[in-house]
Amino acid sequence: MDLDTLQAFQNELICSICMNYYLDPVTIDCGHSFCSPCLRLCWEEAQTPMYCPECRVISQKSDFKTNITLKKLASLARHARAYHVNSFVEQICVVHKESKGLFCEADKRLLCVSCSESPEHVAHSHCSVQWAAEEHREKLLKRMGSLWNMTQEMQNNLNQEVSKIESFEDYVALRKVMIKAEYQKIHLFLHEEEQLHLETVAKEAKEIFQQLKESEFRMTQQKESLKEMYRELTEMCHKPDMELLQDLGNVLQRTELVEVQKPQPVNPELTPQSITGILDILNNFRVDNVLIQEATNQYMRFSKEPGSTLLGVAQRDISGEPQGTESCAAPGPQVFTCGRHYWEVDLTYSPSWILGVCKDSSTSDAVAVFHPEEAFLLFSLKINNRYSLSTNSPTLIQFVKRPLGRIGVFLDYDNGTVSFYDVSKGSLIYSFPPSPFSFPLKPFLCFGAP
C-alpha cells in the first residue's frame, strides 16, 4: 500500500469532532461515526435536538453500541503513526542509550530493556508500550464512562433542583395566599367574637343598670318611708301621755317593720369575657424576674392631700417601725425605655395590693415621690367592707370582678399603653388610654395597701 492510499485510509479513521483517531467509536442513525466521548459532549452542549455534527440529521436515539471494527482499525492506525513518529528525547534511555520500548506497571514509567532488568525493576511486570497504551486507554475509557454516568446522574439531580426551585417558588406564593386566608379567618372569627363580646357586655350592663334603677327606686321609697315614720314618731312624742302610751305598741311594731325592710345596695360588676389568643400573643413579650415579692425594707405612704403627690416610697428607720399609713412596697429591678414587655404576678393570697409601673426615680433621697402622671397603677383596696378595683390618673373604679389569682401586666412603651389582664380568665381588666412616655418606667408592686 503506497503512502497516499495509507494516508487516505488513516484519514477515514479520524473523528471529525476532535480530529484524532477514534476513541470508542459509535455509528449513529445517519451512518456517520464519531468518538463516543466527543459525541456525548457535543450533544450535551447542544442539548436538544440531537443532530449529526456532519450532516445535521436528527438522531432518534442517544445510546449507541461501540463499533468494534472501527475501534480496532483506529487502534492499528494509532500504532502505525507511533511507529513513524520519532521522539528521541522521550523514547531513548539516557543511561543505556537504548529505545524505551517497555512500560513498568508498578512505577508507571517507560523503560529500556536494560533498565527493566535492573534490580530496581526486575521484579516488576513489564509490557510493550503499544500494549500498555491500549490497556490504559481502555481503562481510561471505562473511567470516562463512569464519570459520564455520574455526569448524567448529576444532570438529573440538577434538573430536579431546577424543578424544585420553580415548584418551591410557586408553593411559597400559594403558602402566602393560604396564610393570608387563615389570618382572614382569624380576623373574621375575632370580629364575630368582638361583636358577641360587646353584645354580652351591653346585655349584662342593661340588666345591671335595671337593677341599679330598681335599687334606687326601692331606696327612695324606703327613705320616704323612714322619713314618714320619723315624722309620725315626732308627732307622737308631742301627744299627751295617755294617748302616747295607748298607740305605742302599734307604732313600735310598724317602726321595726320599716327598719327590717332595708334594701341592700347593688354591686355592679361585669363578668370577665375571655379574648381568644390574647395570652398567647402577650407571652411572646414575656419577661421574668421583673418584681421582687420577698420582704423588703421599703414601705409605702399614701398622701392625704388632694392632687399633687399620689404616693411615696421610704426606707424603714432603725427600729423597723415605720410611721403613718404604710405597707410593703417592692419596685422592680428592671427599667424599660422602649419595646413591649409582659409579666405576671400571683396575688392569690393578697387581698390588698397595688400593681403596675411607675417612673424610675433613681435617687439617693430617703423618700421617692411619685406624682399621679408618673405612675400607671391598678389598686385592689377595701372600700365599704368589700374589696374592689380602681386605677389612677384619673381615679376610676373598675366595675369588673376582682381577680383571685395571677394578674398580667403589659407595657407597650413605644405606643404609650399599660394594660392589666386576668390570667385565669384570659380577659382584660383595664387598659390605660395611649399617652406617650417621656421617662423610664419600672415595674411596681405593693402588698397590704390600706
Give me the number of helical elements. Answer: 9
Q: What global shape is seen? A: rod-shaped
Write out the strand line-up for the largest beta sheet, numbering strands in chain order: 8-18-10-12-13-14
Ends: how far apart?
127 Å
State the major sheet. 6 strands, antiparallel
Q: Tally of extended strands? A: 18
Helix vs. strand class:
alpha+beta
> Kindly state the mean pLDDT as a whole number?
80
The gyration radius over C-alpha positions equals 51 Å
Strand content: 15-25%
Structure explained in plain terms:
The protein has 450 residues and is α+β, with helices and mostly antiparallel strands. Strand 1 and strand 2 form a beta hairpin. 16% of the residues are buried. A six-stranded antiparallel β-sheet has the order 8-18-10-12-13-14, with no helix packed on it.
Give me a quick take on this structure.
Helices cover 40% and strands 20% of the residues. The chain has 9 helices and 18 strands. Strand 13 and strand 14 form a beta hairpin.
What brief labels describe this structure?
450 residues, six-stranded antiparallel β-sheet, alpha+beta
List the helices and strands and how they pair.
Blueprint: H1 3-11, E1 25-27, E2 33-35, H2 36-46, H3 68-84, H4 88-91, E3 102-104, E4 109-111, H5 113-116, E5 126-128, H6 129-237, H7 241-246, H8 248-260, H9 278-282, E6 298-302, E7 311-315, E8 328-331, E9 340-346, E10 353-359, E11 367-370, E12 375-383, E13 386-391, E14 396-398, E15 406-412, E16 417-422, E17 427-431, E18 441-447
Antiparallel strand pairs: 1-2, 3-4, 3-5, 6-7, 7-11, 8-18, 9-15, 10-12, 10-18, 12-13, 13-14, 15-16, 16-17
